[in-house]
Amino acid sequence: MKFLVDNQLPVALARWLSQKGYDSVHVLDRGQGQTDDRQIWQEAIAEGRIVVSKDEDFFLLAMRPADSGELLWLRVGNCRTQMLLQTLEQAWPAIEQAFQSGQRVVELR
């Protein structure tokens, strides 16, 4: 799996995914901090990346008929980076299994 982490999430999340062995990049690493969500979405699809975001706009893009993009939608609310990473660590086996089974949108609350 490959990931593209959205702007409102910490760069540390992209690094955490990389440490787990995944190809992961943050939009800030690409100089795309102000890039339109639709462009980020299309680039992620073209590169076979799962978008990681808290932004509902990506959920709406993923729900369009015939869309092929994948989304890890983080709905955990505002929290410190360490708490976010701990939450992901606990949920990661289920998240990984969901994507491997073909689920395109995985929501973490």
Could you walk me through the main structural features you see in this protein, from its secondary elements to its overall organization?
This protein is α/β, with parallel strands linked by helices and 109 residues long. It has one domain (2-108). Helix content is 43%, strand content 20%. Strands 2-1-3-4-5 form a five-stranded parallel beta sheet, with helices on both faces. Strand 1, helix 1 (11-19) and strand 2 (23-26) form a beta-alpha-beta unit. The mean pLDDT is 96.
Summarize the structure.
This protein has 109 residues and is α/β, with parallel strands linked by helices. The chain has helices at 11-19, 37-47, 56-62, 81-100, and strands at residues 2-5, 23-26, 49-53, 70-74, 105-108. It is 43% helix and 20% strand.
Chart the SSEs and their pairings.
Layout: E1 2-5, H1 11-19, E2 23-26, H2 37-47, E3 49-53, H3 56-62, E4 70-74, H4 81-100, E5 105-108
Parallel strand pairs: 1-2, 1-3, 3-4, 4-5
Report the sheet-strand fraction: 15-25%
Order of helices and strands: EHEHEHEHE
Q: If strands are numbered along the chain, what order do they take across the biggest sheet? A: 2-1-3-4-5
Overall number of domains: 1
Radius of gyration: 13 Å
Helical segment tally? 4
| SSE-based structural type | alpha/beta
Helix content: 40-55%
Apparent shape: globular
The count of β-strands is: 5
The largest pleated sheet is described as: 5 strands, parallel
**For the terminal residues, how far apart are their CA atoms?**
21 Å
Name the poorly predicted regions: none
Give the rounded overall mean pLDDT.
96
